[in-house]
Structures are given as structure tokens and as C-alpha cells.
Amino acid sequence: MNVVTADGVLGILRTSGRETYLGEPVTVAEHSLQAARAAELDGAAPSLVVAALLHDVGWLLQAGPRRHEERGAAFLVELFGPEVTEPIRLHVAAKRYLCTIDPDYRAVLSSASRQTLVRQGGRLDEPAREAFAAEPFSADAVRLRLYDDRAKVPGADPPDVDYYAPLVAASLCH
To answer: How many CB atoms lie within 10 A of CB 166?
Structure first.
């Protein structure tokens, strides 16, 4: 079993997070910090701010058979409860859900996000839409997805990783 610490997770953002974020004009860390800041400014619960900060940690982990959202949630489950890990696990499904229920939502997506939408399966069919809506953390996943969409601004100056360290520590499962 891989023992994960809060400091270790934040260290991943500090180091590997400097990588370019999938065709976006920001790094993974910049994107993550902007998403956390958007959640914070929206008055989101601390757990959702932490989820926003860590939602793409799966991209920074060694590749495997799982998609990044599942890989990240599985990695973080050792530290956090479902109020953090479930919105992370569901944030790609939330994008697909929003594309399904809101015909104007797709226009909000960045070019890179529209491209990944195709690889992620596109719009949901009716049973998948209903299943997503029934998930206990689907509303938080939708909010996380909206923070994600706003977190791709080059030159933005959100707080750094250390700013969020106390919030991450306070969100740990004890």
C-alpha cells in the first residue's frame, strides 16, 4: 500500500505541477490553484476548495489503466473523505453531464477541453445522465467542474500551494 501524506500531495503540485496542462496556456499547478481560488471566492465548503485544488492530481501520477479522475481519487482516498474524493472522481462525468443538459455549456469549454470531451465519451445517454444525477456528490462535482472551466487564465495570480496547506491539513481524515 502506498502511504500518502498531505505534504506529499502538495509536494506533487509543487514539483510535477510545473508541467503544461494538456494544451492549456497554464501549468497543472496554476490550473489547480486557480480552481481552488475560484471555489474559495464562491464560498464553497473547505472540502470542495481542497477538491478543486487536487482535482487533477491524477494527471501527475504515474499513468495506469484508470482515467486521471479515478486515479487521483483513488490516490487521495487514503487522506480524505468522500466530500473531497468523490467530486474529484466525478468531475469529468460532470463535464459530460453539463454538455448533456445545457446546450450552451460546450461553448464555455476551452479548445483542449472540447478535445478531451470526445475522448471521455461526449454527452451522456439518458441512463448515464440519471445515474450521474443520483450520485451523492454530483452537485459538488458540477460546481468543481465549473471552477475547473474558469481556471485556465495565463498570468493569473492565485495564492500559492502553501496558502492552502492549512486547509488541506484540516480536511484530512482523522
So the answer is: 10
Report if residue 155 sits inside a domain: yes
Residue-number span of the structural domain to which 127 is assigned = 6-170
Report the CATH number at residue 59.
Answer: 1.10.3210.10
Task: Report yes or no on whether pTM surpasses 0.85.
Answer: yes
Q: CB atoms < 10 A from the CB of 124, how many?
A: 19
For the segment 80-89, what is each residue's pLDDT rounded down to a tens digit? 999 999 999 9
Tell me which residue has cell 491524477.
Answer: 58
CB 17 within 8 A of CB 27: yes
* CB-based contact 171:46 (threshold 8 Å): yes
1 belongs to a structural domain: no
| Exposure string over 13-28, b if 16+ CB within 10 A, otherwise e | beeebeeebbebebbb
